[in-house]
């Protein structure tokens, strides 16, 4: 697999993306971290397809645009085969809310064709997927589609949950619900209600995703460090708490992750800050 980074420029957006070129004979299975962002996928080529086994998603195939909501339990176990390329764009969940205009909790644990979620724009996209062969994000029809659905920045820049999500990201998940509610001037109940609507999970569950991803990144950056040192850097009380959360949210022990990280996962962890 060859993995590259690029920037998709459209309207006043500069959207970083990852592009993996793959040729897989038979079926390849790999463990992939959960993401704190929505993931927009476009698969191109002759035969490539992908599915998330442990979340029981159907096969995602070429020439269709997909979006994945947040995944609530465990890492992703991917099954892939065929030849082609996979684009992956990380979309800030609150921007996804304003783009799709639906409660984000309806997307949790799912990968869905975007054309099935939208009304007028969905018809336009379905016609593209049926009648055109999409070879890249720069397809003219696809650019027209993105131009029509990308929200104006004023739609989300004034949304306090947009900034609460960014605060959690910048703190690598090391933030409590009381601190968040105080900082953004709302009760804990109101904060969680808005998080469920615009992010898909409670604020606490969302913060835990970023804390685990930060831990994974630390394990990659400091391969010689002990788990005690990693736990301290990641903001855990001790190694036992780290190991418990890691097994629950990543599906394996920290030591197993250190030994068996796939190249694709390493690339993902290097680029995890990139998002719309």
UniProtKB/TrEMBL annotation:
Keyword terms: DNA-binding, Transcription, Transcription regulation
> What residues form the membrane-spanning segments?
none
Record's PROSITE patterns? Answer: HTH_ARAC_FAMILY_1 (PS00041), HTH_ARAC_FAMILY_2 (PS01124)
Identify the residues that the record assigns to the HTH araC/xylS-type domain, covering every copy: 159-260
Query: Pfam families, per this entry?
Result: HTH_18 (PF12833)
InterPro entries assigned to the protein according to its UniProt record, in alphabetical order: AraC_XylS_family_regulators, Homeodomain-like_sf, HTH_AraC, HTH_AraC-typ_CS
Per its UniProt record, what PANTHER family does this chain match? HTH-TYPE TRANSCRIPTIONAL ACTIVATOR RHAS-RELATED (PTHR46796)
Q: What is the official name of this protein in its record?
A: Helix-turn-helix domain-containing protein
Give the species this sequence originates from: Pricia mediterranea
């Amino acid at each position: 697999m060859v993995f590259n980074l690029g920037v998709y420029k459209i309207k006043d957006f500069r959207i970083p993306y990852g592009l993996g070129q793959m040729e897989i004979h038979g079926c390849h299975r790999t463990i992939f971290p959960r993401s704190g962002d929505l993931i927009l996928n476009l698969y191109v080529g002759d035969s490539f397809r992908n599915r998330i086994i442990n979340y029981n998603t159907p096969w995602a195939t070429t020439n269709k645009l997909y979006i994945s909501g947040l995944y609530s339990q465990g890492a992703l176990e991917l099954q892939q085969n065929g030849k082609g390329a996979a684009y992956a764009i990380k979309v800030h969940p609150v921007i996804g809310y304003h783009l799709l205009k639906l409660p984000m909790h309806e997307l949790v644990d799912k990968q869905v064709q975007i054309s099935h979620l939208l009304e007028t724009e969905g018809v336009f996209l379905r016609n593209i997927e049926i009648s055109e062969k999409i070879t890249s994000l720069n397809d003219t029809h696809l650019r027209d589609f993105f131009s029509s659905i990308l929200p104006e920045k004023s739609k989300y820049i004034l949304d306090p949950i947009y900034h609460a999500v960014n605060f959690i990201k910048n703190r690598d998940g090391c933030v409590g619900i009381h601190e968040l509610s105080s900082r953004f001037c709302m009760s804990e109940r109101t904060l969680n209600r808005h998080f469920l609507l615009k992010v898909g999970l409670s604020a606490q569950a969302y913060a835990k995703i970023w804390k685990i991803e930060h831990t994974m990144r630390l394990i990659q950056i400091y391969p010689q460090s002990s788990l005690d040192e990693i736990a301290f850097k990641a903001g855990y009380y001790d190694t036992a708490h780290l190991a418990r959360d890691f097994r629950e949210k990543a599906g394996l022990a920290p030591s197993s992750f250190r030994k068996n990280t796939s190249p694709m996962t390493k690339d993902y962890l290097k680029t995890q800050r990139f998002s719309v």
